[in-house]
Amino acid sequence: MTGSYWNAAAETATPEVVRELHFRKLKAQIAYLWNFSPFYREKLEHADLVPNRLRSLDDLSLFPFTEKHELRESQLAEPPLGRHRACPADAVRRIYSTSGTTGRPTYIGLTAQDINGWKEAALRAFWTAGLRPGAIVPIVVSPFVVAASYADAFETIGTCIPVGVNMTDRLIDAFRFAKADSLLCTSSYPLHFAAALIQRGIDPRTLGLKRIFAGGEPGASIPSVRKQIEDCFDCRILEVSGNGDYSGMAWAECEHRRGMHFVAQGLIHPELIDPESGNSIDIEAGAQGELVCTSLDRECIPLLRFRTRDHVIVTQTDCACGRTGFGIRIIGRTDDMLIIRGVNVYPSAVRDVIASFSPETNGMMEIQLSAAPPQGWEPPLQIKVETTGQNDVENVRLKAAIETSLRDKLIFRAEITLVPVGTLPRYEYKAKLVKKCYEE
Ligand SMILES: [Zn+2]
After folding, report:
1. Cα(325) to centroid of ligand 1, in Å?
2. Model confidence at 185, in pLDDT bands (50, 70, 90)?
């Protein structure tokens, strides 16, 4: 730990040093998979590859991807951790289960070394986002599979107060009586929390909340949403991100907030690919693609070229803070993507456009799919939007303005229905942006 960085050597290493380190670690990781993971041994043999084929870091693009459904099938075949487990069963120290948003849960095992690696990445990330000794941080992300690795980091730097979700009063107590000053939560939670405070007659600005670490979904990076949260609590919000599969935490914004820095140097190797062709995309400012991550020194379930399904845009490759890890913003997930007359549309991008009409809208919206695709995805797409306005004339203008903006920015036709604030369902964990109004 040196002032601005948790691990200056890793976070400010030149790209050449990082490439050299990653190549060396990758060679060892692939040899380890070949020797100890039946799943990967088969996968490599099937692709006619041997570990020695990796002669440079660029050769990684020859190696096959790992898809989430393969991990699920591997665990069905050999529960609980699957045929991809590479360490002895008695070396597993922690097992996380994912929330299983799409079907049955998957399990993620960690050895003692894996736990340390996740903790190191979390320490770098939260330090980047401004966590400092003395901070007292309630965490309300219990559905997150990786909350324990965040707690490890908070306990190393400051003080952690675990609070379950749906425990609003307990969370308020953490600020009032335990003098909490920060908060770790999902991006959609702060406004939900603010509404709960106001309902109890508490001004959010009197709470003492100074810093929010938000992640788990796009949202904290939308300027209008960010401003609304910061004004409401008189605080600063920074975005952090990780994933239960490849690393609990790996990305974080610094004070300059030009996208989330990659901070897991030496632990995972990130790539960008075209989701359709699978071809590699060079990492440079403005590049967009799907994030693919490879473990570099994991023991229990190392993942080779894991397709995260997160679509990201590279925001910068040189930041005034001195960190050399490139910056990203997550713009959506392939799983959520709607294809409207051949145009890819992310619900989170629709929300961004609607949120830009703040304060006339509060950013709450729900896309209503009337039928299964392709019929249900035919334009005009029906979207409900909460409005703060009472005036019919103003609402007619707002409806037209949002429809025009969606057509201009996202190239699809929408029909907006304005509804009063509080109409759409609230979720304490993650906002749901799409409602399927039909039987699947
Ligand atoms: Zn920076």
Report:
1. 9
2. confident
CATH of the domain at 425: 3.30.300.30
Q: Which of 80, 85, 84, 88 is nearest to 105 (CA)?
A: 80
Q: How far is the CA of 238 from the centre of ligand 1 (A)?
A: 12
CA-to-CA distance for 61 and 36, rounded, in angstroms?
A: 22
Summarised one tens digit per residue, pLDDT across range 402-428 is: 999 999 988 889 999 999 988 888 765
CA of 235 from ligand 1 middle (Å) equals 19
Examine residue 432 and state whether it is found in any structural domain, yes or no.
yes
**Start-end of H helices in 356-426:** 392-410
In degrees, rounded to 5, the angle at the alpha carbon of residue 57 between the alpha carbons of residues 53 and 63 is 50
Neighbours of ion ligand 1 (CB under 5 A): 254, 256, 319, 321, 323
Domain count, the chain: 1
Report yes or no: 187 and 239 within 8 Å, Cβ to Cβ. Answer: yes
Task: Tell me whether residue 394 is in a domain.
Answer: yes
Distance 61 CA to ligand 1 centre (A): 28
Amino acid present at 126:
F
Lowest mean pLDDT across 202-206, 237-241, 244-248: 244-248
Give the CA radius of gyration of the chain.
22
For residue 228, give the H/E element and its range. Answer: helix 223-233
* Domain, as residue range, for 372: 337-436
Distance 116 CA to ligand 1 centre (A): 24
Task: Return the exposure string of 396-430: e unless at least 16 CB atoms fall within 10 Å of the residue's CB, then b.
Answer: eebbeebbeebeeebebebebebeeeeebeeebbb
Residue 341 lies inside a defined structural domain of this protein: yes
β-strand pairing of 381-387 with 361-369: antiparallel
Closest to 248 in 3D by CA, of 81, 118, 154, 109:
118
CB-based contacts of 132, cutoff 8 Å, min separation 6:
157, 158
Please indicate, yes or no, if residue 383 is contained in any of the structural domains.
yes
Mark 42-51 as b/e (b = at least 16 C-beta within 10 Å).
ebbeeeebeb
Residue type, 255: E
Vertex 229 angle, CA 228 and 230, to 5°:
95
